[in-house]
Write a structure and sequence with these properties.
mainly beta; 5-stranded antiparallel beta sheet; GerMN; LpqB_C; LpqB_N
């Protein structure tokens, strides 16, 4: 495959389907939404120029036709004049929010002359990289296209390099694929979002393998690694065997011990499961990668997924009136036993580890804040050596060995709790994040590879990079959907690929955003009284938000409105484990 064809194959994206997406490890339940934001025009791609089409409609149809990457955007090329300047369709791909205009450009020639300039005008939500990863950047977009009349018909004679396509067309024609890489510390598989054309389906396994061989995207650079070294490649094209299993034969992978082989198997099999490959015969230089296991399924490697969702029997907590209560299902129960629940401390926020065995609490002490760490469910807690005027609500790593909080909006602190001695404090290099403004909220993802942060009223995601010597840094920062979300108050992870945020706006009180910023959805807002102040989310659990009257719960499905679970508590802060 040439570089041009490879870029073209990766240059478009999937039909977004809300929270329910491709198969997940583990799976996440959908949240009912009111509407998809910027859900523009969709439908069937135009087959070609319409006889007698005017320049404005011609360019509009050209943009829609660009949704098909087949034959180097052969469908869109039907709109070009025979003598048109060569169009470099592999240079870049810009994604519009779906609502765009085609208007005469300033100073356009008189159409009666047979030449005119048409401007494509809209809002870009970002670009697709050459590796098939979406890079968010919401901004005003405009591009001029030259149109000429040939044999009585208008055709495009010159179009700038790159492809411009509305999101609605992507949603109809392309799919999201999670490629899987490795958390170098925990040695588990982590997901990295990419996008490939959905047609032809038979080409998707090969494209998914190309993405995997290319390594992590920029979003996870320096955070995730791969068991496939730069020189690794396929010995032959992936092919379906007589028994229906996909044969993948690799070479150049180097010497791998058994744990590394298991991780490599997880990377390949989990990635291929995203494109509906049920069984994989994974070989290295013609021999099975895992001796004794000639064929692998998703279930064989699912345990190596890094994302840890709290078990159904591990409750969340809610802090109200200075006391910590356990969440019994979506309902708050009596305050926890011990000092965090009996009023000995004035608790502001709290969170337990994913297994519920440890608890961290931010407490008010005069005009200052302190962090307490100890056993969960009301066990003994001890202060750690942190002191600040403000602290964000605690957030735990998947192992429960670290808890993070932000001091005075400027210092990201982590507390190491390994059970071998007193808790130790450390710092995260967050210079790139704090340079953007004060951090009001920060949550670790449940696979430990990213953070979502509210900084200066904007929503950001970033990677968590850990070095061999133990240093931790926040890298690869991206701002998500500023025009749609407006001023953000707080956010939480619904899954490793999905974030839920509350805002100060009236149009979208609660919004759900994909981790790469490609999609944004408005969650039903019935019954909520703004402003909202806190939110909690986890897979397969109801969303929880705090408004001016208390805590409300929304589970989606047939539920038509939010239900109040704790009244008279406008200061409440709910949090699910993690």
């Amino acid at each position: 495959m040439t570089h041009r064809r490879f870029c073209s194959a990766l240059a478009l994206i999937l039909a977004l389907t809300g929270l329910a997406g491709c198969a997940s490890v583990p799976e996440s339940s959908p949240v009912q939404v009111l509407r998809e934001v910027s859900d523009g025009e969709g439908g069937t791609l135009p087959a070609g120029p319409v006889e007698g089409s005017n320049p404005l409609d011609l360019v509009r149809d050209f943009v829609f036709a660009s949704g098909s990457s087949a034959a180097e955007h052969g469908l869109a090329r039907r709109f070009l004049a025979p003598d048109a300047v060569e169009w470099d369709d592999a240079a870049s791909l810009t994604i519009l929010d779906g609502q765009f205009d085609t208007v005469p450009a300033a100073g356009a020639q008189d159409p009666n002359s047979g030449v005119t300039t048409i401007r494509i005008r809209g809002t870009a939500v970002g670009r697709l990289s050459s590796s098939g990863a979406f890079e968010p950047e919401q901004a005003t977009f405009q591009q001029d296209v030259t149109v000429v009349r040939r044999n009585g018909q208008w055709r495009i004679s010159n179009v700038p390099a790159g492809v411009v396509v509305p999101l609605s067309i992507f949603r109809d024609n392309y799919r999201q694929v999670r490629t899987w890489f490795v958390d170098p510390v925990r040695r588990l598989a982590v997901a990295d979002l990419r996008y490939v054309p959905s047609v032809p389906a038979r080409a998707q396994p090969a494209r998914a393998l190309e993405l995997l061989l290319a390594g992590p995207s920029e979003a996870l650079l320096d955070a995730a690694v791969s068991q496939l070294p730069p020189g690794a490649q396929l010995r032959s094209n992936a092919a379906v065997g007589s028994d229906g299993a996909l044969i993948v034969d690799l070479t150049g992978v180097g010497d791998l011990d058994e744990p590394a082989r298991q991780l490599l198997a997880a990377q390949v099999v989990l990635t291929l499961s995203e494109v509906n490959v049920a069984r994989v015969r994974l070989l290295v230089d013609g021999e099975p990668l895992l001796s004794g296991t000639p064929e692998l399924t998703r279930e064989d490697v699912a345990a190596l997924s890094a994302e840890v969702q709290p078990g159904a029997d591990v409750p969340g907590v809610v802090v109200a009136g200075g006391r910590v209560r356990q969440l019994d299902g979506p309902q708050p129960s009596a305050p926890l036993p011990g000092p965090v629940g009996n009023g000995a401390y004035d608790v502001e926020s709290a969170a337990t580890t994913g297994d519920g065995q440890r608890l961290a609490a931010v407490v008010r002490m005069g005009g200052r804040r302190a962090l307490l760490v100890g056993g969960g469910a009301g066990g003994a807690v001890s202060p750690v050596s942190l002191d600040a005027a403000t602290m964000t609500r605690p957030s735990w790593t998947p192992t429960g060995g670290e808890v993070w909080t932000v001091l005075d909006g400027a210092v990201v602190a982590r507390v190491l709790v390994d059970g071998t001695g007193p808790a130790r404090t450390g710092q995260v290099n967050a210079d790139q994040l704090t340079a953007l403004g004060p951090i009001r909220d920060l949550r670790l993802s449940r696979d430990g590879m990213r953070v979502v942060a509210v900084v200066g009223g904007a929503l950001y995601t970033a990677a968590v990079a850990r070095s061999i010597d133990g240093e931790v840094a926040i890298r690869n920062i991206h701002r998500l959907r500023p025009d749609d979300l407006g001023e953000v108050v707080a956010a939480d992870w619904r899954s490793a690929e999905s974030i839920v945020a509350i805002t100060r706006g009236t149009d979208m009180l609660v919004g759900q955003v994909s981790v790469d910023g490609l999609s944004v959805q408005q969650v039903l807002g019935n019954n909520l009284t703004p402003p909202l102040t806190a939110i909690a989310a986890a897979a397969n659990r109801p969303l929880l938000v705090t408004d001016q009257t208390g805590v409300w719960s929304f589970a989606g499905g047939d539920q038509a409105a939010w239900r109040q679970v704790l009244g008279g508590a406008p200061d409440a802060v709910p949090l699910y484990p993690g």
